[in-house]
Amino acid sequence: MARVVVVGAGMGGLSAAARLAALGHAVTVLEQAPEVGGKLGRYARDGFVFDTGPSLLTLPAVYRDLFLTTGDALETVLDLVPVDPTAHYRFPDGTEVDVPNASRSGVARAFDEALGAGAGAQWTSFLQRAGRIWDLTREPFLESPLDGWRTLAGLARSWDAVRTVAPWRSLRGLGEQHLRDPRLRMFLDRYATYTGSDPRRAPAALATVPYVEQVFGSWYVRGGLRLLGDAVRDRAVERGARVEAGVEVVEVLVEGGRAAGVRLADGRTVPADVVVSGVDAAQLYGGLVRAPSAARSLRRATPSLSGVVLLLALRGRTPGLAHHTVLFPDDYDAEFDAVFGRRGPQRPVDDPTVYVSAPDDPALRPDDDHEAWFVLVNAPRHAPGAGVDWDAEGLADAYADRVLAAMARRGLDVRGRLLWREVRTPADLERATRSPGGSIYGTSSNGARGAFLRPANRSPVPGLFLVGGSSHPGGGLPLVGLSAAIVADLVGPA
Fold first, then answer.
1. What is the pLDDT of residues 373-427, one digit of tens each?
2. Closest by alpha carbon to 358, among 327, 401, 390?
């Protein structure tokens, strides 16, 4: 039995804790915030309840495996329901389309009906290519520890495999190869933001993101996605893990060349045979432990985008409102230019894509005559002096007004129904989660080398491992869960 300290109780840390405790290790989880869950947050006020992080679960097999591996099935503790349609999309020309859940033929029909005959065939052709990429990359790139360029070298033995994955091509470039309709290309571009990236620079391999969503479905936890975090925490505790909140780790201790525990802000030390870091890799390598090579690699990577969030308490109900609504702008490239500082410095997006999550869930509203909306727009990181200072006086409220006005221009005006709003900026996200600049996914996947610059699960310090969205294989609930499974395999049974 090893003594394991998990630093950070986000979904990566909690999932790793549950798996390692089930393997027989003595696990202690230390979280600096008052509550566990990390970016899988929740806000409640006046009977309105909001998930403040992920709003849907894709690839649920990751968490089904976690629960089966550690005890009872996921469905014994949570009510997992499909989201259908997955989302309602509105394009700049006024075209609207509901994308059905887990039905490739249904998606093709929806595109044909909304965009014109032949659009469905274009998307089907693209999705077939994405499926081949998924088959080739799933095991070596998502379910196994990253082994640098050697991981890619395994694919290089087959020219057909290399040609399929096309590591030299961007997601935008792959879309242009298969999709003639500009609205389909816009639809595809949005999936780059699932990893905090720019579709013009993100690799073509991200085609697997819409493939996974449309093949394995989109799911929601009745009562809110936050309940998934609570359930994983409970499973970890049931298997014997100890979880402490409000405890700040200030140093990973290294003795004899390997991780030996952690030092807390109050001066106490917690000895360990294994340390699992669930904090942002930039925080880990920037101050908690000395690992010069890992720190240099991080500095070469492009940080992921962040976001501005509006939590809206609304009176009345919206006829025909989908669980998710996406309102595209006239100029999508201008959005990515602003967020990543191209054609000028990083700046708030003038006319952003607006993403609305509004589950029809009685548990999230005071009564049936009200709605709780989570609204997200992409934004550059908080970077006072070097980019956008989201703490600048008046900026947050002024930008929230701009977002509400953009929604109104695109046919979703809720300003007359607004009871109150809560605005959260990248600066707020940084304070809440210690994610530098409020980057949602750590580093982006921008550039051909982006995936290989993402910190590996096994650190350069023996006995120190990384989980969570800033480490391999990336951000989002499924990949975070996979990082925990990888680390549990690396540590092994007691």
1. 999 999 999 999 989 999 999 999 999 999 999 999 999 999 999 999 999 999 9
2. 327
In the DSSP assignment, the letter for residue 267 is S
In order of their start, the domains of the chain are 3-40+60-72+223-301+454-491 (3.50.50.60), 101-216 (no CATH), 302-436 (no CATH)
The answer to whether 418 and 425 have CB atoms below 8 angstroms apart is no
Q: CA-CA distance, 473 to 148, in Å (whole number)?
A: 12
Phi and psi (nearest 5°) for 324?
Answer: -125, 140
Burial of 114 (0-12, 13-18, 19+ CB in 10 A): middle
The 10s digit of each residue's pLDDT in 68-115 is 999 999 999 999 999 999 999 999 999 999 999 999 999 999 999 999
Mean pLDDT computed over every residue of the chain: 94
- How far apart are alpha carbons 141 and 472 in whole angstroms? 9
**Could you write out the DSSP letters of every residue in 343-390?**
SSS----SS--EEEE----GGGSSSTTEEEEEEEEEEPPB-TTTSB-T
* φ, ψ for residue 226, nearest 5 deg: -55, -30
Report the distance separating Cα 197 and Cα 450, nearest Å. 10
For 139-194, how does the pLDDT look when each residue is reduced to its tens digit (9 = 90+)? 888 898 876 556 656 666 677 778 888 888 999 999 999 999 999 999 999 999 99
pLDDT recorded at residue 149: 59
* Nearest residue to 442 via CA among 462, 468, 460: 468
pLDDT at 167: 85
CB 445, CB 137: distance < 8 Å: no
Instruction: Please tell me the pTM assigned to this model.
Output: 0.94
Where does the pLDDT of residue 253 fall: very low under 50, low under 70, confident under 90, or very high at 90 and above?
A: very high
Q: Which residue's structure tokens are 């990359």?
A: 137
- Using CA atoms, how far residue 428 sits from 260, 307, 309, 382, 402, in Å, is 33, 10, 10, 9, 19
Q: How far is the C-alpha of 475 from the C-alpha of 137, rounded, in Å?
A: 16
Cα 467 from chain centroid?
13
Q: Is 93 exposed, middle or buried (0-12, 13-18, 19+ CB in 10 A)?
A: exposed
Structure tokens that stand for 433 in this block: 């989660």
3-state DSSP assignment of residue 466: strand
With beta carbons less than 8 A apart as the criterion, state whether 457 and 130 touch: no
CA of residue 49 relative to chain centroid, distance:
20
Cβ(347)–Cβ(449) below 8 Å: no
CB 122 within 8 A of CB 136: no
CA–CA distance, 291 with 459 (Å, rounded to integer)? 8
Helix, strand, coil fractions of the chain, as percent rounded to 5:
40, 20, 40
Residue (of 123, 119, 121, 151) closest to 136 by Cα position: 151
